[in-house]
Amino acid sequence: MAQIVEEKMETEYSGSIFTRLFAYMAPYTKQMIICLALVLVVTGCELIRPVLLGDAIDLYIEGYSEPYCIVESSKLVFKTDALDRNTESCSSYARLLLVDEQYVYFRGLSSSDNDALTLLAEEGPVTTESIDLLGLSGTVLTSSDLKELRHSDIMGIVKIGILYMLVLIVSLVCSYIQTMTLNQTGQNIIYTVREQLFHHVHSLPLRYFDTHPVGRIVTRITNDVESLNEMYSRILARLFKSTVKIIGLAVVMLMMNAKLALYSFVMVPVITVAIVVFKNLSRKVHRAIRTRISMLNTFLSENISGMRLIQIFANEEMKYNEFSGKTMDLYKANLQQLAIFSSFRPLIYILSQIALSIVLIGGGRSVIDSTLTVGTLYIFINYISNFFEPIQDMAEQFSTLQNAFASAEKIFVVQDEVNTITEIEQPVKLNEVKGKIEFKNVWFAYEKDNYVLRDVSFVIHPGEKVAFVGATGAGKSSILNLIGRYYDIQKGQILIDDVDLKDLSIEEVRSAIGQVQQDVFVFTGDIQSNIRLLNEEITDEQIVDAAHEVNAAHFIEQMPNQYKEAVSERGSTLSQGQRQLLSFARTLAFDPKILVMDEATANIDTETEQLIQKALETLMKGRTTIMVAHRLSTIQHADNIIVMHKGKIREQGTHQELLKHDGLYKKLYELQLYSER
Hints:
The protein has 23 helices and 18 strands.
């Protein structure tokens, strides 16, 4: 049941993934165009290489059987004969023929003699008897004679070999530049995405974090963003290359031999259907995988943070079983992905081999019938492998691409979360926050119409010390959250210095408020950084002064490295009282005009509380101070005490006035006195 609820919480993205993904590439259009141009060059080099090998076979390796024309002068001279490969308008021919495993040179052939030898060579192995029947005679060549005659063919092969190497070098250089440029561009894009996402998460209201687990948010910024890296750095270029390669091969094959090309394309419709089916199945399973990874990270984040509680209640085995269940869900989803992927690639391979067999049968017959050269058949066989190779490559790319799309959906859902705490275009600027706070008929609910504050009205004048008391759930902490505008009210009005809170800059309001909470969060770093909180305007001297004012210096300066002392995550090396004192120093270092304390002394022992009471009295002078406390003894000095009950103000006045009133406050006070005896 819990898993079903978690999966329902995963909102699906309904917009265009492609549009938003490609929008990130817009600033890098120049780099992408360069990469695509280089991909075209690399693809062209891959298309040329088989042609070069085919030409080497047809023109030079198998070229010995082609006739020569005996001319008056030529670069190729053999046994006093000047030879030329151009046989148009030729009257006297010469040719080389393999007769009984020996190379025989025939010269002075007429056109009919040359045609007879050509027909004889096509029919099968040539023998001495068949030559005698034609009444022709030739000269058996030695090894040196053969090298002399075929010197031009050898040089032709050398030239093609050199050209092949040059094409290969160009391909490698372009591939290197393209890979480096694309990877750098991809890293820049990922950096931008991660920065934007983190900044957007910071801008979201607290209501979002109330309903979304930390582990899920961490998954979006880390795992899901990293999944996009492969797409931008590798997959897009490979997809473009594969597409260009398939189209280029198809065009070249059709131009070379349309009949063989059509043989090659017989399996294309079947492959197209397989790709569509694979795409749909792969996308579903990748969505499931990303959701389960998010659920697993959420579970880990929550349970590692609450490890102390788990061990206190000896729930290790139960949590282990719960973790095993979530891990098994992810394991099964990955197995589904493997099943789909492992069946698709072999299917493509089998279809490519069937197409190759068809080409071999059809092309082999054409070679035997002398309607196709061996070199052309070799080019086609090479092209068939290259034609289906990018399709097979797409099988691997689809897996990563679908993973990236699934992650992109999750990321865009977070990015589309609307910040309900919005500012007006031109907020009112206060030259100086004096600290007057007024609530006018405020109604507030965290969820729909379940109001936690009902028609609340009060005024806090600058420099006043006001305390809110009441039972748990009365709405005290909600008032503090509304003053800092961490939530927006449904009805009424909140004013600071007689200006509506919604007309002020959020930054200005929050920078004027120093808030000390019961649950103090300590960041990984050192004491100094946890007081400064990255505000470089706060000097080291101010940090030391703030620590001394709240009596935090007495434990900080006893540490080996004092203010440079390292602290771990959540301040686990500090006691609760020390963390609370550190929070006081942090707040006071920022010198706020409004001081807010939510159960600030709840976790401090009596001795430590006495240490800070005097400091607090000094700090409250000139500052509007709002306190929430269950221990009524800590707020007796307040100028005004507001008693909350079920979201409404029931009483307000000084400590003595409320005791005389004989109302709710007096009952709370007497109850605490009785419990402390």
